[in-house]
C-alpha cells in the first residue's frame, strides 16, 4: 500500500507519464508523437497511450491555468485515472515527466496519485492477488523542491494512516487500541504521546467522557499527542481536539442499523484526523507547536449505561441533563475542550463526526465549521479548504441557537430542538471554550458510501490535508 515520492535525474524502468498542456513546450521532447498529441489536445482527451518501440508511454493533458479549486482538483482526478492504468499494467514505478512550466502541477498530480493508492486489505486472505504493485512515484528532472517532496510524503502517510484507523472496526479498534496506535505512530513520526488511563480520567472527574463510557465493557482513554519543535513559530500552542467515539450505537437511545449504526465505526474520524495532522506536522518537521487531545470510548447500551434524564457533572463543573444518549460526542469533546484551557492556547480546533444535521446541510463534499476565532482564521481555513479541496462551510453561532441548549434542572441539556442541529451542537461546545476556537463537523465527508475518484469507499482521511495546509501557512 502507499507510494513514496522521490526526485530522480533519470527515469528507471516503469510507467512513463508525460504531463503537458496546449501551452507547454512538449514538442522538443515528444516530437515523434506530434500528430497524436495535437489531436488529443484538440479532442480534449485526458490521457493518451502511445507506442514507443515495443513499449508504451502515457501523456496526461492538463490545463496549466489553475484559476479555481476545481482546476487543481482536475489534476488530482487525472492522476487517479493514471493510477488505474498503472495498476492495470502492474507497474511498480511511475516516472513523472512534467513538461508544464509550473511544478505545482506535478505536486497536485502526486497528491491525487498517492491518495489513489490506498487499500484496506489486511483482513483479506487474497490481499496479495488483488493489491496494486506500485511502490514509488519519481519526479524526473523536476524543479520541485526537496521540502515539498517531504511535505507530500508526510501528508500522504498521515492521510493513509487516518483512513486505516477509521476503517478498522470496533473488533480491532477499541479506545485502548486507538491509544496504542497513537503510541506506535508517535515513535515512528517523532511526536510524544501520553495516554491517561480510566483511573486518571476518574480522578480528573471527566464526567462527560465517563458518562459515555459507562455502558461499555472497555475502558476509555484520553490521549495527549504533542509536537514541540525547538524553534516554534507560535509562542502558545495550537490545540487540536478530536472526537474518538470508536463505535456509536447511540447507547440506550439506540440507532437503527441500516445506513446509521452500521457506519458508526467511523465515529472516531475526528480523532484520526487530528492524530494524522500531528503525524504530518512531525514528519514534515514543521516549526509549529501543536498538541492533540483525544477523548475516546465506545458508546453502547448495557445494564449500567447512562440513561436519558441523567444529570452529569462535566470536567469543568458544568451540569448537563442528558436527554439523548446518542448526542454523546459533545459530552466527551466538552471535557477535552475544557482541558485545553490549561495550555493557554493560541487557537483550538476540534473535529468531529458530530451531527446528522451537518450531513444534511452540506452532504459529503464539505465540512460544516463555526467558531469564535478571528474572521481571518476562518478565511484562512476556507482558503486551505479550497487549496486541498477539503472545503468548509461556515455557520453562525448566534446566541438564539444557544437558548435551546439550556435546561430547567441543570446548566445545559445535550439535545436541542432538532433544527439546525450542527449549530446547536456547536453552541453546546462553545460553552466549554474561553479561547479562539473553530469547530469542524466532518460527519459528511469523513466516510463515503461510494468511491469518489482518489477518495475510496469508506474512510476518506478528510481534514488531514486541510489542517496541515492551514498550519503550514499560519503566521
Ligand atoms: N455520530 C453521530 C453523528 C453522525 C451521524 C455522524 C451521521 C456521521 C453520520 C452523533 O453522535 C449523533 O448521533 N448525533 C445525533 C445528535 C442528536 C441526537 C442531537 C444526530 O445528529 O442525530
Ligand atoms: Zn451519537
Ligand atoms: Zn457519535
Overview of the structural elements:
This protein folds into 2 domains: 4-144, Leucine Aminopeptidase, subunit E, domain 1, CATH 3.40.220; 167-473, Zn peptidases (Aminopeptidase, 3-Layer(aba) Sandwich), CATH 3.40.630.10. 36% of the residues lie in helices and 21% in strands. It contains 15 helices and 20 strands. A hairpin with a 5-residue loop joins strand 12 and strand 13 (319-321). The chain binds ligand BES and zinc ion (2 copies).
Keywords:
2 domains; alpha/beta; nine-stranded mixed sheet; Leucine Aminopeptidase, subunit E, domain 1; Aminopeptidase; 21% strand; binds ligand BES; elongated
What's the structural blueprint in terms of helices and strands?
Elements lengths: L3 E5 L6 E6 L13 H9 L4 E6 L2 E7 L7 H20 L4 E6 L4 H14 L10 H4 L5 E5 L5 H22 L7 H15 L2 E5 L1 H6 L3 H7 L7 E7 L10 E5 L1 E5 L20 H15 L6 E10 L11 E3 L5 E3 L7 H12 L6 E6 L3 H7 L4 E5 L3 H14 L3 E3 L4 H5 L8 E2 L7 H10 L6 E5 L5 E2 L9 E2 L4 H10 L2
Parallel strand pairs: 1-6, 2-4, 2-5, 5-6, 9-11, 9-14, 10-11, 13-17, 14-18, 15-16
Antiparallel strand pairs: 3-4, 7-8, 8-11, 12-13, 15-18, 19-20
Helix pairs in contact: 2-3, 3-5, 5-9, 6-9, 8-10, 9-15, 10-14, 12-15
The protein binds ligand BES and zinc ion (2 copies).
